[in-house]
Design brief:
mainly alpha; globular; 274 residues
Length: 274
């Protein structure tokens, strides 16, 4: 169990980060609203590019964090450090290249993406694009570091057994603190059901349930059986359905709860099997 002090250490930085992330767009608009509609329009155009690049940096960071986390899970800290270093340098190099392109070729880029733009809107967009480009390396390095610090996600055996021991047989307690000694994992349960239809639902923001691991359990349960789960690679998208096999899966935006959207996807999966 986490103490209140531990929870505060975890929650307060997350709240501050999300507050800053939400308010930065509002702050941009407030600061330039007095400059007129052209300035607001220019910022809106550039922000669409910024959002794309932020998603790119976040995806790169997530991929690197997964690799580093796998090494940490194996106890190979040297390889984990090397993976973290490669992620840092790759993020810095990519963001620097994109930043240089944006600084020196911002007008051609804007013309290529948006076509003909009014002169006053273009002037404001170029200024904002220049300032945004300077921040790209810092943003990419931040994403890489944040992803690595959060790389080990998901509810652990120790957590769930201490809070809900009545969910398990008494003998299961012998593996508290010894997860690596488990002779089985969650995909065994899925595999035992998978001759029939079984469904796994994830939410992109449900880090405690660890949606990436939930999806990996579907691959492991199928064990190469294309009729059970006919997919090759793990998807990093935040909203998708995998309904072709006997094992159904979806990931939706949001947090840990059952929504109408979940039920609609359950129904769509089972209706497709009739």
């Amino acid at each position: 169990m986490f103490s209140n002090k531990d929870l505060r250490k975890l929650i307060i930085p997350l709240v501050i980060e999300q507050l800053l992330a939400v308010t930065i767009g509002m702050a941009d608009t407030v600061m330039v609203s007095s400059c007129g509609e052209a300035a607001v329009s220019g910022i809106s155009l550039v922000d669409s590019i910024n959002f794309l690049l932020i998603t790119l940096f976040s995806s790169l960071a997530t991929g690197g964090a997964v690799i580093a986390s796998q090494y940490i899970g194996r106890g190979d800290h040297k390889s984990a450090s090397l993976a973290a270093k490669q992620l840092f340098y790759a993020s810095l190099a990519l963001s620097a290249v994109l930043g240089i392109i944006a600084v020196f070729f911002r007008k051609p880029v804007l013309n290529m993406v948006f076509g003909s733009i009014e002169a006053d809107v273009m002037a404001h967009a170029q200024i904002y694009f220049l300032l945004s480009a300077i921040s790209y390396p810092f943003l990419a390095v931040y994403n890489a570091g944040a992803a690595l610090f959060r790389g080990k996600k998901g509810e652990q055996l120790d957590d769930i057994y201490r809070q809900f021991p009545f969910w398990f047989g008494e003998s299961f307690g012998q593996y508290v603190g010894k997860t690596d000694a488990l002779p089985f994992d969650q995909h065994y349960l899925l595999a035992s059901i998978a001759p029939r239809y079984v469904y796994v639902a994830s939410a992109a923001g449900d880090d405690w349930a660890d949606p990436a691991s939930e999806l990996l359990s579907c691959y492991a349960a199928a064990a190469g059986d294309k009729e059970a789960f006919p997919y090759e690679e793990t998807s990093e998208d935040y909203d998708f359905n995998l309904h072709a096999g006997r094992i159904g899966y979806h990931r939706r935006p949001g947090l840990h709860y059952f929504s109408r959207e979940d039920w609609n996807r359950f129904i769509a999966f089972f209706e497709s099997k009739q």
